[in-house]
Each structure stands twice: as structure tokens, then as C-alpha cells.
Structures
1.
Amino acid sequence: MVQGMRKGWAIILLVLLGSFAGIAVAQYKEGVHYQRIEPTVPTTTGDKIEVVELFWYGCPHCYDFDPYIKRWLMRKPANVEFIHIPAVFNKLWELHAQAFYTAKALGISGKIHDALFDAMHQGGRKFPTPASLQQFFAENGVSKDDFYKAFNSFTVKSQVKRAIQLTKRYGIDGVPALIVNGKYRVNSRNVRTYSEMLKVVDYLVRKEMAAAGK
């Protein structure tokens, strides 16, 4: 009889936990924890669900958020494609976006991304000019010629132009901001912590999976 009672309480506990989980999920509401983007911005990831982070290297909040993103990437679903896009609100941000895409063109994004963040937020460097960025790339093993060839290339300038357009189309007014499948926008002002910000993203990813029957 005792064993049966324990089993009964275990079932009740599971039901209650499930109810609490449902309540937690229900807390994420459109217009409160995230916003719908209208019109929807087309994605570039085919059948995969696209998650975009918009950031700026000079933003301390983006720097603090970066480790959270790295941990999230280790557990994200396989059918989710993550994309970094530098937000552009002024000429300095545009310059740093150009540095981001220059590193990408040179095949050293991973190395430069972390190093540039650290240089600005640990080293106090500002990188206000192309020459200051060239010096930084030189410190990371890139020749002057290779830097300027990539920095001034049509490909890099086209990517920066697109970043400017997407900053406007996503409707963001600050960073870090996350975009799910071109439909939903999540930023740090809508939630209490960076961890919760990513929980909202997880909720929206599940929502998109359900809509696609995945």
C-alpha cells in the first residue's frame, strides 16, 4: 500500500511539474517578451530555422552576452542555423562591420571576433580608423596588403551594405538583439537576464518547428 501511495504521489508531482513548465512557457508573450517583425524578413538558411544575433564590437552588453551565445551554440538544435550580423547605426559601427566582414573574407573570423572584443573591452582600444584596424589585423598575422585588399573589396562592402539594410528591416534600436526566422525580435530590454533572452529564443525556435511540422 505504501508503495502504491508513493507511486501516486510521484505521478501527481510529475503532473504538477508539467503544469509549471507549461506556465513558464506561457509567460513568453508577443509584445511583452518578443516582438513580431512586419513584414517578415526573408531568411537565407533554406529549410533550417535561422537565428541571427545583431551586435556591435564596442557594446559592453554584447561583450557580456557573447559567452552566453557560445554556450547556446553548443546545445542548439541541429536544424537551427546561427548567423552573426554586425548592426550599423553610424559610421563607427559601419567601420567595425567592415572589420567583421574583412575577417570573414580572410578566413579568420573566429580568431578576430574574440580578439577584437577583448581589445576593446579589456584593452580599452577604440579602432576609430581603417589604419587602427589594419594595425590590429597586423598584430594577428595579416599583412597590410592582404588587409586592405579584403577591407576594400566589393564583397566586403556589399556585405556591409546588406548589414545596414538588415539593421533597419529588423527594426532594432539597440544591441544585442536576436532575430528568429526573420519573424521575431528579442532584445535584452524584454527580459531580466541574458539566459532568459535565450530561453525566449528557444521558445520561438520550438514555435517555428511546430509550425513547420519538424
2.
Amino acid sequence: MNRRAMAPTHPVRSRLLALLNSAPLALLLTLGACGQGAGSAAVERPPLEGAAIGGDFTLVDKAGKPVRWADFAGKYRIVYFGYTFCPDVCPLDLQHIMQGYHLFARDHAALARDIVPLFITVDPQRDTPTVMGEYSANFGPELIGLTGTPESVAAAGKAFAVYAARRPGATPGSYLMDHSVTAFLMGRDGKPIALLPAEKDGKAVAAELARWVR
């Protein structure tokens, strides 16, 4: 993980609440509790149930092979947007996500095989298929890095209500990406379930996976 921007940055932690205008009021009331432990004995409803998050896209993997959202039908999906030159938040979040995935897999091997972790770039200019493949491999062979044209990447980001904007770096010609930092857990049907607490640690991510992956 030696790809870094020229200066440190702290990307916008999440603009999700401002973007989920179509979600029911219950969603807004439960988002704050995401990642905190189970509630009552009653059947829990997914915190992101009904939210307008997700949708089809066409990107490419490390080999340049087209990948569509529909390719993962029937699988749970962890979706995280970031970029390989991110100096701080992205690599730490990805580390926590994959640590959590591996902890979950240790106790639930069969279910873990039905989870697909996806890392989608917000910086397609620098994040080529090869770069994404090499970077993603640092966190585990299960993590699939996806990139594409600026238009296809922007379309994927829009589908997931992800904010991203370029800003100048510390030296002439360099730049960083401000972006929302959110790890989505999506269900077998491709619909949103919950946010994973990637900002915490692997144990917290594993606990949230155990809460919803069945």
C-alpha cells in the first residue's frame, strides 16, 4: 500500500444522510444506531431498508474484464468507494473491512463464500485496472477492485449516492479526491441492508456482518 497522495487529507466522512431523500423516515431514525449491537428480541428491520441506494453499473476488473452489478445476483455485497492514492482513510477502512470479513469467515465459512467485497474507485484517471488489482490484493484475494471510464465510475457513484470531487494537492499538477466514506452492505437481491462500521475496527465489521448475513 505504497500509493499515496502528495499531502494528507481527511475525506468527507459521509454525506449519505443528506442524499437519501427518498428513504422512509424510519431509515433516518435508525441510521445513527448502525453498528451498535442488536436491539430488542423482535425481528430487526434492515436500517437501510427502502433507501434508494444501488443499481446496475458496468465497470472493469483488474484484467479489464467488464463487470456488472447483476453479475453478483444472489450474493451479499460489501461496497466501498475510495481511491488508491488516498493517504489515510481509505486504506484504514479497507483494512478494517477485510479484517472483519476474514473474522466472519473464520466462524461462518459457508456464509462468507456468499459475500463479495467490492472496492470501486472514485479516481479512474489514475486507478487503472492494473493499479486497482495490485492495490486490492494488499487487503486479501477476495477484494475485487473495480474501475472504468470517468462516465461509468460517475454513474456507479451516483447509484450509491456517493459524493466525490477533485481538489488540488500540495504540488503543482497533483490532486486529491474528497469523497464520502461509506461501506454499504447489500443483500442477495442487490438492495441495501446496512452500513458497516469500517471507521471502527475489524471486530465491529464482523459483528455487523453476523447481524445481517444469513
3.
Amino acid sequence: MKKQVLGIMATALLASSAMAADFTLKFSHVVSDNTPKGKAARFFETRLEELSKGKIDVQIYPSSQLYKDNAVLKAIRLDSVQMAAPSFSKFGKIVPQLALFDLPFLFKDIDHLHRVQDGDVGTKLKAMVTKKGFVALNFWDNHFKQLSSSKKALIMPDDAKGQKFRIMSSKVLEAQFHAVGANPQMMPFSEVYSGLQQGVIDGQENTNSNIYTKKFYEVQKYLTVSNHGYLGYLVVLSKKFWNKLPKNLQANVKQAMNEATQKEREYAEDLNTKQFNLIKEYATKTGKLEIITLTNEQRQAWATKVSAIYPQFHSPKKIGKDLINGALNTK
């Protein structure tokens, strides 16, 4: 009986807190709750409801329950949903300058990358997105990309010559592979496994977590730990929603988002490390995959070769020399 009464009280409390909310923030994303993005979204939900003392009711819709990434930006402009975290590639036509993150070997390590995102360069990029009818909040990580192949170990840039690599739609990635004499092939992510299995493509580039969850390591002979490029997301908010919020609640949103961002980065780092260890276990057990970690000299050889493409993107309409140099010079 006591349990029943407590249950009724809890339900009543939840109902009253939902009724007490002045604003509803729907956060739509395309991955499951147990991913870094999914877990960070849940953290943001809890934290913002605490900070706003229930004035903002956050509702999370994972796994494309409401929108896929290619439709969510339009939905945010219409205020049909209030928040999303699409990958940079989804902003390609709106703010092509976000292709900065596609440039190979631009970032020394993850800390340098975060200093770029949280500093002047990141602020400029977010301002460009905000000008296009969104409120750009924070950058979230997927992680650095690695290279794989079924044809030849990728140790020096010349090893990529003549090989067919899958890329997502990006002029930068096209130029990157042309710079090493490879053939970039645009292909949807969902088709990569079968493409590798059937030899339609020889190799691909992706984060450890993508390589592991999609089992690309099973249909490749060589995996090179290159950390050459980066995959990430930008959390954006509806401008209509933002403008309705009083200043104190805007401050709550920013604080909850900053805390969630810190968590998301930790989750992404942890997941990539864990899943890379699982790939290593597979390699050791089966002997079917060779893992290569580039030495500083080898990494420098790749960086020298592919950074030759940077000037192609100096035009402000593409990425912009100031943003590229700003990233390179971020201390």
C-alpha cells in the first residue's frame, strides 16, 4: 500500500512539474541513447531541468524518432523542434566553412582541436551558422578518423596511390585523396560495408567507433592509426525558441550545454578507446587485420603531402585563409 501511495505521489509530482514548465524544448537526434551524443543529450535534459527549476521541460527524441539529420535543420528553422546536433556535413550548403574540420592533419591532437572549437575560430564559425537562422551552441565529438584498406598497408602517402577510397560528400576529402594519388568514391555510409566486402572500394576513413560498430575491420586487411581528420557535430537551437526565453533561462541553457559538452567529449574519448581495443583484440585473435601506428616521421610525410591542398580552400566562400591559419596558429 505504501509503495502504491508513493507511486501515486511520484506520478502527481511529475505531472505537476510538467504543468509548471513554461517552455518545452524538443531535442531531436539520430543516434541511440547509449552513444556519446545520446548520453550527453540525456545529461543536458537532466541538468537544464534542474537549473531552470522545471521551467524548461526538455524532451529527447533519439534514433530519428522525429527527424533524420537531413530534415532537422528545416524543422529547427520552423521551431517544430528546438534542438539538434547534426554532423558538420549537413551544414555544407548553409555554412561551407565548417568543412574546416575536414582538412587533413590540421589538428595536432584532440586538445588542440578543442582549443580551436572553444576559441576564436569556433566562435567565428558559430556566428556564421547563427546568421543563417539558428543559434549555434557547442561542438560535440565523434572523434578522429583512421584509414583502412584491403589492398595495401597505408604507411607512406604513396601507398594510397591508385586505391579507391569511400568518402562522404566533401570537396576537401576529394582533394585530400587526389593529393596522394588515390581515387575518392562518394558513397552513402550505409553502403560502405558491402562496398568493401565486394571490392567496389578498397578502403575508407572513419572513427574507431564507426569502424567497430559497422564492422568495417572485418572486410579490411590493414588499419592505419592516422588521426588525420575529424568527425563532429554542432548543437544548434531554434532562434524563435531562444528569443522567447528570458535572460536567466538563456543562461541556464548555456550552462547546461557547456557541462553536457564536457561530458560528451569524455564519453566520445572513452568509447573510441574501448572500441579500438576491441578491434585490436579481433586483430590479435584472427590474424586477419594488421594495425599500423604511424611514426612521427611517417605522419609528417602524410601531413606534408595532403596539407598542400589547403590553399585550394583559402577563398572565404570555401573555408577561408583566416580560419585555416587561425586553426593552425591556435596555441
4.
Amino acid sequence: MNEQISMENLEGQAEYSYVIDKDLSEEKEDHIREIERSIIKKFRKSIWCKFTKAITRYELIKEGDRIACCISGGKDSMLMAKLLQEIQRHGKYHFDLVFLCMNPGYNKENWELIEQNAKVLGIPLTVFHTEIFDTVADIDKNPCYLCARMRRGYLYSHAKALGCNKIALGHHFDDVIETTLLGMLYSGKIETMMPKLHSQNFEGMELIRPMYLIKEEDIKAFRDYNGLRFIQCACRFTEACAAQEEASISKREEMKALIEQFRNTSDVIESNIFNAMHNVNLATVLGYQKDGIKYNFLDDYDK
């Protein structure tokens, strides 16, 4: 059952709907508990411990936080929601959670699947609607980049309107090393996806990535073990490509394939890519940038 209420956001009046299963049977509650137990028991080492390690290592959650857990409807964000629920119940910090879900124009089938999964997993969604998919549908150049930027802005805006000081996104270990390789191979620079960032456009807001140390293969294992099915990328652009049976491969998919080759060669390469971003030796690089200032090794070579 969905309820409609109106609330103020940064731009004026915003309407939110809530996806909450108010008629939880004992059977449904037992199923939710089984899924939660699988996180702590079956996937304790591969998921839960890596999640709590990231929280501690990068100081992602602090006392009194109000975090908007951003739900896209995919496997990553849905698992992140369950992990944040668990650490809210059993962790050392007291913090609030809002499970913020934007409907940017999903088709009926995908949206119904998101609502169904939220109820199966016991995740109370706070939903708002936009027309982002319609906006970017006719964009020829970098529609995915524009879509991502617009979605991020909406999420920040609504999270702040709901009193949150942080948004949590479901990027995982594989996303981090793919981003690192993309920067090196296609942009000629060494940079990575950070575990947390201060927002440059929304004062007082911060982005955190609690799934930072969790591998995608383990997220898929959790999904399959619990018999769950989530949406993939469900934008108009993706649907159109599928309908036309186009076989174009994105740069990120190229990185996924490359990393898979690395895995077949050695079981340490992907971890080394990740760890390299924690162990940069500035004395052995030709140049770097910080706060908009460029440094060259020649600047103090003879000092």
C-alpha cells in the first residue's frame, strides 16, 4: 500500500510516495529474517565483514548521521540497504536512515519489480518521481553521463530536503578498480572512485560508498542464494539498444572483460590495482595535482 504526502524541498513543493508492506504475514517476516541471517552467516566473510571494514577504515558513518540510502532497484543498492539496516540495528553508532528511491521514468514492469523487491526485503522506500529518462532519451552524445549527473543532483537535493547529511551509493570493489583502469587507459591520469566525498554543490552534504570493499561476484552470490531478481540498467537508451540488438561495448564493459582476464592470469592483480591507490609514492611519479595546482618532479629535483 502506498501513501502520498507533500513535503518541502529545495525547489518548492515535492510529493513523495511510500512503499511499505503494512500487511506483513508471519511467512513474509520469516523470509526477511532468513535473508538477513544469510548476510551475517553465509556471507559473513565475503560481504558483512568487508562492509563493516569499509565503514571503519574510511570513517563513513558517524554518530548522529542521517543517511539517504539511494535505491536504484539493482542488486547493489538493494543489498546496501539491507547492510545499512543491519549496522543500524547492531552497530556502535546511532544514526537515521531514509531509503530514497527515484523513479526517473521506469517502465511499468521494472517499477513493479522494484516495489516487489522492497517488500520482499523489508525496505521501506521513500519515492519521488522525475522525467530524466525522457530528458536524455534524444541525447546522442554521452546520454549515460548526463543521466548520472542529473540523477545525482536530484538525489542530493531530495536527501537534503529530507534532513539528511549524507547519501549512500552502492558502488562496489569492481567499480573502483574499473574506474582506476578507465582513467589510466582512456584519460591518461591516475585517479579512482573515492570511498567518500564532500559535495561541491550541496553545502553540508557528503557522499559515501559503504560497499567499497565488496566484490561484485559476492553480491551476485547473495542474490542467487536468496532467489532474488533485480532490474538491470532500465533506461530508454538501454532498452532501445537491446531492441535493435546492437552489440556495442561500453568502455566500462571493456574494463570488466580486461579484469576478468587478469583474474584468469593471477588472483592478486585486481587487489593490487585497488591497493596501488592506497600506496602512491610521490617521490617516484613524474607529476601530480592537488587542489588545482600541478606539481612536476623537476620543481624540487635539485633541492
